[in-house]
Amino acid sequence: MTSVKPWYSSRTVWAAIVTVLMALCGLFGVPLDGFHESEMADALLQAATAIAGIVALIGRLVAKSRIG
After folding, report:
1. SS3 track for 9-66
2. Mind telling me which residue stretches traverse the membrane in this protein (predicted)?
3. What is the pLDDT of residues 5-51, one digit of tens each?
4. Rounded distance, CA 54 to CA 65, Å?
């Protein structure tokens, strides 16, 4: 692997987060019958991508310097 990407763009990271969250939910007795790990990981990845895009846009709008 030679390419670098942000952590929030990694399906593996999101799958691990989902796995931990589902384990914690099971530990505390939260029913998870209708959830699938892969679908939840995809949804979280899409949400993280959208949030990163919004943060980048806001950062550019409030920036004091031009892009060169």
Report:
1. HCHHHHHHHHHHHHHHHHHCCCCCCCCCHHHHHHHHHHHHHHHHHHHHHHHHHHCCCC
2. 12-32, 44-63
3. 888 778 888 888 888 888 888 888 888 777 787 888 888 888 888 88
4. 19
- The amino acid that residue 32 corresponds to is L
- Residue 66 neighbours by CB under 8 Å, 6+ apart: none
Helix axes 37-62, 11-27, angle to 10 degrees: 120
> What's the rounded Cα separation, in Å, for the pair 65 and 63?
6
